[in-house]
Amino acid sequence: MPVVTCIEDLRRMAERRVAKAIFDYVSRGSYDELTLRANRDELEALKLRQRVAIDVDQRSTRSALAGQEVAMPVGIAPVGLTGLNWANGEMLGARAAEKFGIPFTLSTMSICSIEDVASAVTRPFWFQLYVFRDRGFAASLIDRAKAAKCSALMLTLDLQIQGQRHRDLKNGLTVPPRLTLANFVDALCKPAWTFNVLQSKRKSFGNLEGQIKGADNLLTLSQWIAGQFDPTLSWKDVAWVKERWGGKLILKGILDAEDAKIAASTGADALVVSNHGGRQLDGTVSSIRALPEVVDAVGGRAEVYFDGGVRSGQDVLKALALGARGVFIGKAFAWALGAMGEQGVSLALEIIRKELDVSMALCGLRDVKDASPAILRRG
Length: 379
What we know:
CATH class: Alpha Beta
Strand order of the largest sheet: 3-10-9-8-7-6-5-4
CATH superfamily: Aldolase class I
Number of strands: 10
Low-confidence stretches: none
Helix content: 40-55%
Oligomer: single chain
Protein backbone atom coordinates (compact mmCIF):
# COMPACT_ATOMS: atom_id res chain seq x y z
CA MET A 1 0.00 0.00 0.00
CA PRO A 2 1.38 3.45 -0.88
CA VAL A 3 2.29 5.87 1.90
CA VAL A 4 -0.53 8.41 2.23
CA THR A 5 0.60 11.78 3.57
CA CYS A 6 -2.06 14.22 2.32
CA ILE A 7 -5.54 14.54 0.82
CA GLU A 8 -4.02 14.77 -2.67
CA ASP A 9 -2.70 11.22 -2.27
CA LEU A 10 -6.22 10.04 -1.49
CA ARG A 11 -7.63 11.99 -4.44
CA ARG A 12 -5.23 10.25 -6.82
CA MET A 13 -6.06 6.84 -5.36
CA ALA A 14 -9.79 7.52 -5.76
CA GLU A 15 -9.29 8.66 -9.35
CA ARG A 16 -7.61 5.35 -10.17
CA ARG A 17 -10.20 3.23 -8.38
CA VAL A 18 -13.64 4.87 -8.76
CA ALA A 19 -15.63 4.89 -12.00
CA LYS A 20 -14.88 8.06 -13.95
CA ALA A 21 -18.50 9.25 -14.02
CA ILE A 22 -18.73 9.09 -10.22
CA PHE A 23 -15.26 10.56 -9.63
CA ASP A 24 -16.10 13.47 -11.95
CA TYR A 25 -19.47 13.96 -10.26
CA VAL A 26 -17.62 14.54 -6.99
CA SER A 27 -14.67 16.49 -8.36
CA ARG A 28 -15.92 18.77 -11.09
CA GLY A 29 -17.95 21.98 -11.15
CA SER A 30 -20.49 23.83 -13.26
CA TYR A 31 -19.96 25.52 -16.62
CA ASP A 32 -16.35 26.76 -17.01
CA GLU A 33 -15.49 25.85 -13.39
CA LEU A 34 -14.31 29.38 -12.57
CA THR A 35 -15.82 29.23 -9.10
CA LEU A 36 -14.50 25.72 -8.51
CA ARG A 37 -10.95 26.94 -9.21
CA ALA A 38 -11.43 30.18 -7.26
CA ASN A 39 -12.32 28.20 -4.13
CA ARG A 40 -8.85 26.64 -4.19
CA ASP A 41 -6.86 29.54 -5.63
CA GLU A 42 -8.06 32.08 -3.09
CA LEU A 43 -7.58 29.74 -0.14
CA GLU A 44 -4.03 29.07 -1.30
CA ALA A 45 -3.38 32.79 -1.75
CA LEU A 46 -3.96 33.44 1.97
CA LYS A 47 -0.68 33.30 3.87
CA LEU A 48 -0.24 32.24 7.48
CA ARG A 49 1.92 34.29 9.83
CA GLN A 50 4.70 32.16 11.33
CA ARG A 51 5.69 33.00 14.90
CA VAL A 52 8.62 31.71 17.00
CA ALA A 53 9.72 31.44 20.64
CA ILE A 54 6.13 31.14 21.92
CA ASP A 55 5.14 28.37 24.32
CA VAL A 56 2.85 26.15 22.26
CA ASP A 57 2.89 23.07 24.46
CA GLN A 58 -0.39 21.39 25.44
CA ARG A 59 -2.34 22.36 22.33
CA SER A 60 -6.05 21.70 21.80
CA THR A 61 -8.08 21.37 18.61
CA ARG A 62 -11.30 20.73 20.53
CA SER A 63 -14.31 22.94 19.95
CA ALA A 64 -18.12 22.83 19.70
CA LEU A 65 -20.46 23.00 16.69
CA ALA A 66 -24.20 23.54 17.11
CA GLY A 67 -23.91 22.61 20.76
CA GLN A 68 -21.95 19.42 20.03
CA GLU A 69 -18.46 18.91 21.45
CA VAL A 70 -16.06 18.03 18.64
CA ALA A 71 -12.48 16.77 18.43
CA MET A 72 -11.75 19.52 15.93
CA PRO A 73 -13.94 22.20 14.30
CA VAL A 74 -14.42 20.15 11.14
CA GLY A 75 -17.48 18.30 9.89
CA ILE A 76 -18.35 16.11 6.92
CA ALA A 77 -20.51 17.99 4.43
CA PRO A 78 -23.51 16.41 2.69
CA VAL A 79 -22.41 14.69 -0.54
CA GLY A 80 -24.90 13.10 -2.93
CA LEU A 81 -24.34 9.58 -4.28
CA THR A 82 -21.73 8.89 -1.61
CA GLY A 83 -22.60 5.20 -1.65
CA LEU A 84 -21.46 4.95 -5.27
CA ASN A 85 -17.90 5.81 -4.22
CA TRP A 86 -17.82 2.83 -1.86
CA ALA A 87 -20.54 0.36 -0.93
CA ASN A 88 -22.61 1.63 2.00
CA GLY A 89 -20.47 4.76 1.88
CA GLU A 90 -22.77 6.97 3.96
CA MET A 91 -22.87 4.39 6.75
CA LEU A 92 -19.08 4.07 6.71
CA GLY A 93 -18.57 7.84 6.63
CA ALA A 94 -20.93 8.36 9.56
CA ARG A 95 -19.17 5.65 11.53
CA ALA A 96 -15.73 7.14 10.87
CA ALA A 97 -16.95 10.59 11.90
CA GLU A 98 -18.50 9.23 15.08
CA LYS A 99 -15.29 7.46 16.07
CA PHE A 100 -13.27 10.60 15.39
CA GLY A 101 -15.68 12.88 17.21
CA ILE A 102 -16.99 15.22 14.51
CA PRO A 103 -20.40 15.73 12.82
CA PHE A 104 -21.46 13.75 9.76
CA THR A 105 -24.14 15.27 7.51
CA LEU A 106 -26.25 12.90 5.43
CA SER A 107 -27.45 14.21 2.06
CA THR A 108 -31.06 13.96 0.97
CA MET A 109 -29.60 12.48 -2.24
CA SER A 110 -27.74 9.71 -0.45
CA ILE A 111 -27.63 6.08 -1.50
CA CYS A 112 -28.06 4.76 2.05
CA SER A 113 -31.20 6.01 3.77
CA ILE A 114 -31.60 7.98 6.98
CA GLU A 115 -32.61 4.75 8.70
CA ASP A 116 -29.61 2.85 7.28
CA VAL A 117 -27.19 5.42 8.68
CA ALA A 118 -28.98 5.53 12.03
CA SER A 119 -28.45 1.77 12.30
CA ALA A 120 -24.70 2.16 11.78
CA VAL A 121 -23.99 4.67 14.56
CA THR A 122 -24.71 5.11 18.24
CA ARG A 123 -24.69 8.93 18.35
CA PRO A 124 -26.82 11.43 16.42
CA PHE A 125 -25.75 12.61 12.98
CA TRP A 126 -26.96 15.62 10.98
CA PHE A 127 -29.34 15.53 8.02
CA GLN A 128 -29.30 17.82 4.97
CA LEU A 129 -32.68 18.72 3.47
CA TYR A 130 -33.78 19.85 0.03
CA VAL A 131 -37.28 21.33 0.06
CA PHE A 132 -38.87 19.80 -3.02
CA ARG A 133 -42.02 20.95 -4.80
CA ASP A 134 -43.75 18.07 -3.04
CA ARG A 135 -43.92 19.67 0.41
CA GLY A 136 -45.54 16.55 1.79
CA PHE A 137 -42.46 14.54 0.91
CA ALA A 138 -40.19 17.24 2.38
CA ALA A 139 -42.25 17.07 5.58
CA SER A 140 -41.85 13.29 5.67
CA LEU A 141 -38.06 13.67 5.40
CA ILE A 142 -38.06 16.06 8.35
CA ASP A 143 -40.17 13.63 10.36
CA ARG A 144 -37.86 10.72 9.48
CA ALA A 145 -34.81 12.76 10.54
CA LYS A 146 -36.53 13.48 13.87
CA ALA A 147 -37.39 9.79 14.31
CA ALA A 148 -33.73 8.91 13.66
CA LYS A 149 -32.77 11.41 16.39
CA CYS A 150 -30.67 13.57 14.05
CA SER A 151 -29.23 16.39 16.15
CA ALA A 152 -29.25 19.10 13.46
CA LEU A 153 -31.01 19.80 10.17
CA MET A 154 -29.01 21.49 7.40
CA LEU A 155 -31.34 23.18 4.89
CA THR A 156 -29.69 23.82 1.52
CA LEU A 157 -30.92 27.03 -0.11
CA ASP A 158 -28.82 27.31 -3.28
CA LEU A 159 -30.29 24.55 -5.44
CA GLN A 160 -33.62 26.04 -6.51
CA ILE A 161 -32.41 25.54 -10.09
CA GLN A 162 -29.56 23.20 -10.93
CA GLY A 163 -26.43 24.60 -12.56
CA GLN A 164 -25.19 22.70 -15.59
CA ARG A 165 -22.19 20.47 -15.02
CA HIS A 166 -20.70 19.76 -18.42
CA ARG A 167 -18.74 16.72 -17.31
CA ASP A 168 -21.83 15.00 -15.90
CA LEU A 169 -23.62 15.42 -19.22
CA LYS A 170 -20.68 13.97 -21.13
CA ASN A 171 -20.45 11.07 -18.68
CA GLY A 172 -24.12 10.21 -19.03
CA LEU A 173 -25.18 11.40 -15.56
CA THR A 174 -28.29 12.89 -17.08
CA VAL A 175 -32.04 12.48 -16.59
CA PRO A 176 -32.60 9.77 -17.48
CA PRO A 177 -29.08 8.34 -16.89
CA ARG A 178 -27.33 7.39 -20.13
CA LEU A 179 -24.89 4.48 -20.31
CA THR A 180 -22.05 5.40 -22.65
CA LEU A 181 -19.56 3.02 -24.22
CA ALA A 182 -16.77 4.89 -22.45
CA ASN A 183 -18.44 4.36 -19.08
CA PHE A 184 -19.01 0.68 -19.79
CA VAL A 185 -15.37 0.18 -20.71
CA ASP A 186 -14.27 2.22 -17.68
CA ALA A 187 -16.33 0.02 -15.34
CA LEU A 188 -14.79 -3.11 -16.88
CA CYS A 189 -11.34 -1.65 -16.25
CA LYS A 190 -12.21 -1.05 -12.58
CA PRO A 191 -13.56 -4.43 -11.44
CA ALA A 192 -12.78 -3.81 -7.76
CA TRP A 193 -15.03 -0.73 -7.75
CA THR A 194 -17.77 -2.50 -9.72
CA PHE A 195 -17.78 -5.56 -7.46
CA ASN A 196 -17.67 -3.41 -4.34
CA VAL A 197 -20.64 -1.21 -5.31
CA LEU A 198 -22.69 -4.26 -6.30
CA GLN A 199 -22.38 -5.47 -2.69
CA SER A 200 -24.01 -2.28 -1.37
CA LYS A 201 -27.13 -2.42 0.78
CA ARG A 202 -28.79 -0.06 -1.71
CA LYS A 203 -28.17 0.93 -5.32
CA SER A 204 -30.56 3.85 -5.68
CA PHE A 205 -31.54 6.95 -3.69
CA GLY A 206 -32.20 5.36 -0.32
CA ASN A 207 -34.25 8.22 1.11
CA LEU A 208 -36.61 8.07 -1.85
CA GLU A 209 -36.94 4.30 -2.44
CA GLY A 210 -40.47 3.13 -1.76
CA GLN A 211 -41.58 6.67 -0.94
CA ILE A 212 -42.50 7.98 -4.39
CA LYS A 213 -45.45 6.38 -6.16
CA GLY A 214 -44.46 5.05 -9.59
CA ALA A 215 -40.76 5.76 -9.02
CA ASP A 216 -39.18 2.52 -7.86
CA ASN A 217 -35.78 2.46 -9.58
CA LEU A 218 -32.85 4.77 -10.26
CA LEU A 219 -34.23 5.79 -13.67
CA THR A 220 -37.71 6.79 -12.54
CA LEU A 221 -36.42 8.32 -9.29
CA SER A 222 -34.00 10.47 -11.29
CA GLN A 223 -36.84 11.69 -13.47
CA TRP A 224 -38.96 12.50 -10.41
CA ILE A 225 -36.09 14.41 -8.78
CA ALA A 226 -35.45 16.47 -11.92
CA GLY A 227 -38.91 17.99 -11.63
CA GLN A 228 -38.72 18.56 -7.88
CA PHE A 229 -36.13 21.32 -7.44
CA ASP A 230 -38.31 24.29 -6.59
CA PRO A 231 -37.62 27.81 -7.90
CA THR A 232 -40.35 29.17 -5.59
CA LEU A 233 -38.33 28.31 -2.46
CA SER A 234 -38.33 31.40 -0.20
CA TRP A 235 -37.68 32.55 3.35
CA LYS A 236 -41.27 31.59 4.17
CA ASP A 237 -40.29 27.99 3.57
CA VAL A 238 -37.37 28.40 5.98
CA ALA A 239 -39.88 29.42 8.66
CA TRP A 240 -42.01 26.36 7.82
CA VAL A 241 -39.01 24.03 8.07
CA LYS A 242 -37.89 25.60 11.33
CA GLU A 243 -41.32 25.16 12.90
CA ARG A 244 -41.76 21.57 11.74
CA TRP A 245 -38.22 20.55 12.68
CA GLY A 246 -38.06 22.22 16.08
CA GLY A 247 -34.36 21.50 16.63
CA LYS A 248 -30.99 22.91 15.63
CA LEU A 249 -31.31 24.46 12.15
CA ILE A 250 -28.40 25.26 9.82
CA LEU A 251 -28.86 27.21 6.56
CA LYS A 252 -26.43 26.26 3.80
CA GLY A 253 -25.53 28.25 0.70
CA ILE A 254 -25.05 31.80 2.04
CA LEU A 255 -22.60 33.96 0.04
CA ASP A 256 -24.01 37.47 0.31
CA ALA A 257 -24.10 39.87 3.28
CA GLU A 258 -27.75 40.79 2.66
CA ASP A 259 -28.77 37.13 2.59
CA ALA A 260 -26.69 36.56 5.73
CA LYS A 261 -28.63 39.23 7.62
CA ILE A 262 -31.96 37.71 6.56
CA ALA A 263 -30.77 34.20 7.41
CA ALA A 264 -29.62 35.27 10.86
CA SER A 265 -32.99 36.95 11.48
CA THR A 266 -34.81 33.63 10.94
CA GLY A 267 -33.45 32.34 14.23
CA ALA A 268 -31.30 29.68 12.55
CA ASP A 269 -28.55 28.34 14.78
CA ALA A 270 -25.86 28.45 12.09
CA LEU A 271 -25.17 29.39 8.47
CA VAL A 272 -22.80 27.74 6.02
CA VAL A 273 -20.86 30.04 3.70
CA SER A 274 -20.87 27.90 0.57
CA ASN A 275 -21.18 28.09 -3.22
CA HIS A 276 -22.10 24.40 -3.44
CA GLY A 277 -18.49 23.47 -4.15
CA GLY A 278 -18.46 25.48 -7.37
CA ARG A 279 -21.30 23.34 -8.73
CA GLN A 280 -24.04 25.98 -9.06
CA LEU A 281 -23.48 29.62 -10.15
CA ASP A 282 -20.21 29.79 -12.04
CA GLY A 283 -18.33 33.06 -11.85
CA THR A 284 -19.60 33.89 -8.37
CA VAL A 285 -17.36 34.72 -5.43
CA SER A 286 -15.25 32.05 -3.75
CA SER A 287 -16.43 30.88 -0.35
CA ILE A 288 -13.31 32.15 1.42
CA ARG A 289 -13.70 35.63 -0.05
CA ALA A 290 -17.36 35.77 1.03
CA LEU A 291 -16.64 34.51 4.54
CA PRO A 292 -15.56 37.75 6.31
CA GLU A 293 -18.51 39.81 5.03
CA VAL A 294 -20.96 37.09 6.07
CA VAL A 295 -19.38 36.90 9.53
CA ASP A 296 -19.70 40.69 9.88
CA ALA A 297 -23.30 40.68 8.67
CA VAL A 298 -24.34 37.92 11.07
CA GLY A 299 -22.80 39.79 13.98
CA GLY A 300 -22.75 36.82 16.32
CA ARG A 301 -26.45 36.04 16.01
CA ALA A 302 -25.63 32.58 14.63
CA GLU A 303 -22.59 30.39 14.23
CA VAL A 304 -20.92 30.69 10.82
CA TYR A 305 -19.50 27.61 9.10
CA PHE A 306 -17.53 27.37 5.88
CA ASP A 307 -16.99 25.00 3.00
CA GLY A 308 -15.41 25.21 -0.43
CA GLY A 309 -12.01 23.95 -1.51
CA VAL A 310 -10.78 22.65 1.86
CA ARG A 311 -7.98 20.12 1.42
CA SER A 312 -5.80 20.50 4.52
CA GLY A 313 -5.49 21.56 8.10
CA GLN A 314 -3.93 24.77 6.87
CA ASP A 315 -7.11 25.51 4.93
CA VAL A 316 -9.14 24.86 8.06
CA LEU A 317 -6.99 27.25 10.09
CA LYS A 318 -7.30 30.00 7.47
CA ALA A 319 -11.10 29.77 7.51
CA LEU A 320 -11.17 29.83 11.30
CA ALA A 321 -8.91 32.89 11.26
CA LEU A 322 -11.45 34.70 9.09
CA GLY A 323 -14.30 34.03 11.48
CA ALA A 324 -15.65 30.56 10.71
CA ARG A 325 -16.71 28.56 13.76
CA GLY A 326 -16.44 25.31 11.83
CA VAL A 327 -15.25 24.00 8.46
CA PHE A 328 -16.83 21.28 6.34
CA ILE A 329 -15.20 18.90 3.87
CA GLY A 330 -17.06 17.39 0.92
CA LYS A 331 -14.77 16.46 -1.95
CA ALA A 332 -11.93 15.53 0.40
CA PHE A 333 -14.29 13.20 2.26
CA ALA A 334 -15.61 11.55 -0.91
CA TRP A 335 -12.08 11.04 -2.28
CA ALA A 336 -10.95 9.45 0.96
CA LEU A 337 -13.97 7.15 0.96
CA GLY A 338 -13.48 6.24 -2.70
CA ALA A 339 -9.81 5.49 -2.11
CA MET A 340 -9.98 3.31 0.99
CA GLY A 341 -13.51 3.14 2.37
CA GLU A 342 -13.99 3.81 6.08
CA GLN A 343 -10.25 3.51 6.69
CA GLY A 344 -9.67 6.27 4.14
CA VAL A 345 -12.12 8.63 5.85
CA SER A 346 -10.49 8.04 9.23
CA LEU A 347 -7.07 8.62 7.68
CA ALA A 348 -8.19 11.86 5.99
CA LEU A 349 -9.55 13.20 9.27
CA GLU A 350 -6.34 12.36 11.08
CA ILE A 351 -4.26 14.01 8.32
CA ILE A 352 -6.32 17.20 8.62
CA ARG A 353 -6.17 17.16 12.43
CA LYS A 354 -2.37 16.76 12.45
CA GLU A 355 -1.93 19.51 9.87
CA LEU A 356 -4.20 21.77 11.88
CA ASP A 357 -2.31 21.04 15.08
CA VAL A 358 1.15 21.63 13.58
CA SER A 359 0.02 24.79 11.79
CA MET A 360 -1.47 26.17 15.01
CA ALA A 361 1.84 25.63 16.77
CA LEU A 362 3.87 27.31 14.06
CA CYS A 363 1.49 30.28 14.16
CA GLY A 364 1.91 30.55 17.93
CA LEU A 365 -1.50 29.15 18.94
CA ARG A 366 -2.25 26.66 21.69
CA ASP A 367 -6.04 26.60 21.35
CA VAL A 368 -7.86 26.39 18.03
CA LYS A 369 -10.58 28.68 19.38
CA ASP A 370 -8.01 31.50 19.50
CA ALA A 371 -7.60 31.61 15.70
CA SER A 372 -8.11 35.17 14.43
CA PRO A 373 -7.01 37.44 11.55
CA ALA A 374 -3.83 38.07 13.58
CA ILE A 375 -2.40 34.75 12.32
CA LEU A 376 -2.72 35.82 8.66
CA ARG A 377 -0.12 37.90 6.86
CA ARG A 378 -1.26 41.11 5.22
CA GLY A 379 0.08 41.94 1.78
